[in-house]
């Protein structure tokens, strides 16, 4: 599984801490972790939480990533933005129980975390525990286990509904403001990670043409 981290501008200074914690857990569980920034560097390409949503959709729909970890000050804006784009089912987790229940009941492919609200003493420990519980078991295993079948059915219904009411991502990429799109994919390591991991097809071709 390929796990991507995306930070927006207000919490970019915490990127190194967040990624180090995420990578530690991913390494333990045999997962690949990729840091798409922001990195908290001077004059780097900016990402708002809305751009986090677009970037997450590009990564997930192209199979460049299988799961996206994102967030903002409260986690609410990033969650809302990620869920606004096709192919993304994003939850919000303030603690390890949130992360585990979202993974097992909702079976989503993205998680938003508050990186300012409540981010104080022991924050790195809470992050590590969130990531450990998020990836503790295969996604969609159900909780409690006897509810697994109806929970998977409901998660499938949600994905089907989203496929009907959201525009396909290639259409979104054509219609969205191109300056907004170009800034979204202008991160320091985006081209390197995306081109190496995205599956061949329309989305990869469209993004490659805009790099």
UniProtKB/TrEMBL annotation:
<protein>
    <submittedName>
        <fullName>RpiB/LacA/LacB family sugar-phosphate isomerase</fullName>
    </submittedName>
</protein>
<dbReference type="Pfam" id="PF12408">
    <property type="entry name" value="DUF3666"/>
</dbReference>
<dbReference type="Pfam" id="PF02502">
    <property type="entry name" value="LacAB_rpiB"/>
</dbReference>
<comment type="similarity">
    <text>Belongs to the LacAB/RpiB family.</text>
</comment>
<dbReference type="InterPro" id="IPR003500">
    <property type="entry name" value="RpiB_LacA_LacB"/>
</dbReference>
<dbReference type="InterPro" id="IPR036569">
    <property type="entry name" value="RpiB_LacA_LacB_sf"/>
</dbReference>
<feature type="domain" description="Ribose-5-phosphate isomerase C-terminal">
    <location>
        <begin position="166"/>
        <end position="208"/>
    </location>
</feature>
<dbReference type="InterPro" id="IPR022133">
    <property type="entry name" value="Ribose_5_isomerase_C"/>
</dbReference>
<dbReference type="GO" id="GO:0016853">
    <property type="term" value="F:isomerase activity"/>
</dbReference>
<keyword id="KW-0413">Isomerase</keyword>
